[in-house]
Amino acid sequence: MITATPSAEVDQPLGEAVDAEFVREFAQAHEQAGFDRALVGYFSNGAEGAVVSSFIAAATSRLGILLAYRPGVIAPPLAARQLATLDQFSDGRLALNVISGGSDIDQQRDGDFLDHDQRYARTDEYLSILKSIWTAERPVDHEGRFYRFKGALPNVRTRQKPHIPIYFSGSSPAAIQVAARHADTYMLWGEPLADFAEQVQRVRRAAAALGRRPRISVSFRPIVADTEEAAWKRAAEILERVRENRLRLGLPISDHAPANAGSQRLLAAARRGEVLDERLWTGVARLTGAQWNSTALVGTPEQVAEALGRYWQQGADTFLIRGFDPLDDARLYGRGLIPAIREHIAALQRRKAG
């Protein structure tokens, strides 16, 4: 994940909201480390992601970009042109992480006052419109519940065919239905293995009813070191840094009640124990209310790769990993974890084929 200024739970953003040289360094570190894609998040208090993505595309030659995008902030005909333009300038390296929004307060900062289920209904219509414009041969008319337009022109084509890949997340019933219809890749936070497998099957069933089978992504915050003991020591240090930062900023460290279903699932898992499935660590998730991707796999690169392999065996196609010290960890992953993951999954594939 590439942010526009140094920031994380252990490094709250200070000073200006945009640091162009940091973005360049961060993007190139991801590319050199061997990442396939890097997520550019959506922040109502931060730099605009499509512009950041354009800068990243210019600063790299191979790295894919996963742009977090909220439907409803930009009218869909303009969004179709904006995103197709970015796909062209990035030479087909763009994917879209569609975020309907889990916090009413945060949505309202950008002028969105729809409730939870209305947002997902709008996302359904929005994605249908984007795909219809991207694949159209003639001007597009539309009259729906949330949008109305006439003669939207499909002149700006996406580089990728039939369209830019759609990544999607959300655990509520409304979200699952939208994922079943539109997601090319469905994204989950790092839950315990049994919970993950259950959710994968839930999504697979909903998608299969529509003749679809999305890929599955699972997200973790790996904490790796040369020895397992050193990795757990680092996890304890990270937890104390997060606690100190939250207290300094006046943020709660207990009694969390997240509004979105994904955070509720993650927090429920965290309450079952600080360490689950041997090396799934929930300390930061419990402390922060699991408001985002906050569970870690802790160990040596080989141990974390083996843990990820178990998620691959339960349906994961791709992993989204980022560290609690984002830039340093991106480089660290490139030196050990990413090669270990690729080697371990390749071995599992050979074993499955044989």
Element layout with pairings:
Elements: H1 20-33, E1 37-40, H2 49-59, E2 64-69, H3 76-89, E3 94-98, H4 104-109, H5 116-134, E4 140-143, E5 148-152, E6 166-169, H6 173-182, E7 185-189, H7 193-208, E8 215-220, E9 223-224, H8 228-249, H9 261-271, E10 275-276, E11 280-281, H10 283-288, E12 296-299, H11 301-313, E13 318-321, H12 326-353
Parallel strand pairs: 1-2, 2-3, 3-6, 6-7, 7-8, 8-13, 9-12
Antiparallel strand pairs: 4-5, 10-11, 11-12
Helix pairs in contact: 1-2, 1-12, 2-3, 3-5, 5-6, 6-7, 11-12
Structural write-up:
The structure is a single chain. By secondary structure, the chain is an alpha/beta fold. It is built from twelve helices and 13 strands. The strands form three sheets. Strands 1-2-3-6-7-8-13 form a seven-stranded parallel sheet, covered by helices on one side. A four-stranded mixed sheet has the order 9-12-11-10, with helices on both faces. Strand 4 and strand 5 (148-152) form a beta hairpin. Helix 1 runs parallel beside helix 12 (326-353) and helix 11 (301-313) crosses helix 12 (326-353). The longest helix has 28 residues, at 326-353. The two termini are 36 Å apart. The model has no long low-confidence stretch (mean pLDDT 94).
For the structure shown, list the relevant keywords.
354 residues; alpha/beta; single chain; four-stranded mixed beta sheet
- The order of strands across the largest sheet is 1-2-3-6-7-8-13
Number of DSSP E strands: 13
- Following the backbone from N to C, one meets helices and strands in this order, namely HEHEHEHHEEEHEHEEHHEEHEHEH
Percent of sequence in beta strands: 5-15%
Question: What is the global morphology?
Answer: globular
Low-pLDDT stretches: none
